[in-house]
Amino acid sequence: MGICDGRVVVITGAGGGIGRSHALAFAAEGAKVVVNDIGVARDGTGSSAGPAQAVVDEIKAAGGEAVAHTDDISTWDGAESLIKLAIDTFGRIDVLVNNAGILRDRMLTNMSEAEWDAVIKVHLKGTFGPAHFAAAHWRNLAKAGETVDARIINTSSPSGIFGNIGQANYGAAKAGIAAFTVITSQELGRYGVTVNAIAPTAYTRMTEDLTHLVGTADDAARLAPEHISPLVVWLGSPASSGVTGRVFSITGTKISVAEGWVAGPTVDKGERWTPAELGDVIPDLVAKAAPNADMTGTRPTQS
């Protein structure tokens, strides 16, 4: 018996890295798992059914229940088929973990339209599509009088909530996912659905060339994806019912709640400003405002 015993969990991008870790962790806590992965390279090229099936085989070998899904969930039909497979195979869906992603890092001046579109599609549309079909299913159950206790857990990133040079496409998608999380939590609460997100830092093939993260074997162990999954499993469990609309930063064993945009220093003239007079007003507001956080989520010390 585990904290997710009997729950049906769908995880996208679960053929490796953080997604694979999530799948194994949910299965270890008693969940039945739908493992989605199309087996692409880090930049989204190629495809293979092997990674998803390998994770399914690993879960089954440990005595769990799992099924592979290898359609592209960044397409409408692929997203719909993912949720349908869960319901057809296990009779229900309780948790959706949106984790699939690719990287095509480039400085803005060198980024192509294709590099922008591919990353936005996989991350942002690949979160929206499965969430749409899962939420519609839960809404129908709730309207039919059934009790729903469902979860959506999205995957943002420090690049999205704090920013990172060379990742305008990836960061924009991940920032969109954070906003999507807040908004959909407000929409779906009435149906018994919570929506949260994580912004993880982990050492996987997605981050293997970020040498500032990992300098030693100890660093790699500290940032192993297995450290991320306990939070996601808890968020997918019945125990998390009171938590929704939040983005959690997690690095190794350190978890924090990200605090979103807030209205800072304010001035109200009471009538329309002229452009010229704002030359004194705006710099003063900026000087009074807290500086943006760095990639670690820490604000620089103000002088």
What does this structure look like?
- The model has no long low-confidence stretch (mean pLDDT 91).
- Helix 1 (17-28) packs across helix 8 and helix 3 packs parallel to helix 4 (113-143).
- With 303 residues, the protein is of the alpha/beta class.
- It has a single domain, classed as NAD(P)-binding Rossmann-like Domain (Rossmann fold).
- The longest helix has 31 residues, at 113-143.
- 39% of the residues lie in helices and 14% in strands.
User: Average pLDDT across residues?
Assistant: 91
DSSP E strands, number: 8
Helical segment count: 9
Helix content: 25-40%
User: What would you call the structural class?
Assistant: alpha/beta
Q: Give the overall shape, derived from the CA principal axes.
A: globular
User: What Rg, in angstroms, do the CA atoms define?
Assistant: 21 Å
CATH architecture: 3-Layer(aba) Sandwich
In the predicted model, the low-confidence regions spanning at least 5 consecutive residues are: none
Query: How many domain units?
Result: 1
Concise account of the structure shown:
Helices cover 39% and strands 14% of the residues. It has 303 residues and is α/β, with parallel strands linked by helices. Strands 3-2-1-4-5-6-7-8 form an eight-stranded mixed beta sheet, sandwiched between helices.
